[in-house]
Amino acid sequence: MSQGLPVRVFEDLEQARNFLLRSRRLEQVELPPAVRQKVREVFGADLTAMEVVQRIVDDVRRHGDAALHRYSRAIDGLELAGFAVTEEEFARARAQVPEEIRQALALARDRIEAFHQRQIRQSWLHFEPAGGFGQLVRPLERVGVYAPAGRAPYPSSLLMSAVPARVAGVEEIVACAPPSPDGSVSPVILVAAELAGIDRVFKVGGAQAIAAMAYGTESIPRVDKIVGPGNIFVVLAKRLVYGDVDIDQLPGPTETLLIADASADPALCAADMLAQAEHDPLASAVLLTTDAGLAREVVAQLERQLTRLERASIAAESLATNGAVAVVPDLETAFELANAYAPEHLCLLIEEPWAYLDRVRHAGGVFVGESSPEVIGDYTAGPSHVMPTGQTARFSSPINVDTFVKVISVVAVNPQGLEALGPPAATLARAEGLTAHAAAIEQRLERRRPA
């Protein structure tokens, strides 16, 4: 690994592999000093992130709105009259958001809706001699969306979470968003909420918002599922309430892995890495390349382009902590490493990207070719950008229509089917020691036999 660069550079394959496959568990993330100080001020103790979340969730579950008001005062410094965003506040937001931004949000909404319309599943029934069997596909009744607004508001994430729910047919969608210092929700978040068809928005953020949606309070209704990204406290709260309510996933710090060969433009590789790194100091931007010369040029471009960024300090910390450029012997090795890493975003900046698409086994999303930057996926491509992170792409998917439906099995065995399927079912029941199970079948069979 080279030293004194804006990002780690690996020329040894095993060192690169060890770095990429290190643990990325949220519990191991150390809270920044300022956050730890705030924790001490609020709770009077030096708690871990999970201990903070446990206290907040338990408090909101027991005390409802009273707990939400306490945390609003202690954490946000706000004394709110109520948590629900009023129609007057929505009207002010409409007037404050420039038409150009509203049109861009509407375009994104339309693209997300059109993409997910193609995924809708229908209920089905199949009739055979033994009877009818099938599945009822039913949307969830009420979903809660978390709208992150920490370092900046993210209306795109609200659209990416809520629009697929609307397409799925969810009856009611509510959202929680952290309030600004003046006690309002960001106008662009409210405009996005209206465009997405969200029914109600509440001025609550953090773990307390997750607890409120999971268990319900006097102001905020209990939901069936909570979706959307957030900070470490939000994600850990989602983990804690899972089982009492469903969740989409546990999205951690965002991550991008680029695979590039000699045909790639080093300036664009660096731009894509920086676009990811500017999200958060914990974000990960990684480049795997078969060309050592490209690796050197990308590092030089990172140094050059960093100086032009408004969020240069965040991007620099991200690259120094979690970024990497690794030189690999061939594209086969690059894809093998990428599948082991299972990135949220996998970008193929190679000469023949379509020829390698079948090599992808684990990724939240694949961005094919140099003209398909991951940033387009963040906003206007169509698929939801709420994708699995931290190697969970090995077994989970981005938010999609199936996130918001459940499947009910249908079993309608007819008398002929009972004769055919009943005896072996009774045999299996007795093999498991469940004689009452067997008897429930055998009594029916006996009633069908002549006296």
UniProtKB/TrEMBL annotation:
KW Acetylation (keyword) present: no
Cofactor: Zn(2+)
PROSITE patterns linked to this entry: HISOL_DEHYDROGENASE
Pathway: Amino-acid biosynthesis; L-histidine biosynthesis; L-histidine from 5-phospho-alpha-D-ribose 1-diphosphate: step 9/9
Binding sites annotated in the UniProt record for NAD(+): 146, 208, 231
GO BP: L-histidine biosynthetic process
Residues in coiled coil: 292-319
Catalysed transformations (reactions): L-histidinol + 2 NAD(+) + H2O = L-histidine + 2 NADH + 3 H(+)
Pfam families on file: Histidinol_dh
Cofactor comment: Binds 1 zinc ion per subunit.
Keywords: Amino-acid biosynthesis, Coiled coil, Histidine biosynthesis, Metal-binding, NAD, Oxidoreductase, Zinc
A GO CC term assigned to this protein in UniProt: cytosol
Enzyme class: oxidoreductase
Residues noted as binding Zn(2+) in the record, renumbered to the chain: 276, 279, 378, 437
Family: Belongs to the histidinol dehydrogenase family.
Annotated function: Catalyzes the sequential NAD-dependent oxidations of L-histidinol to L-histidinaldehyde and then to L-histidine.
Protein name from the UniProt record: Histidinol dehydrogenase
Organism: Thermalbibacter longus
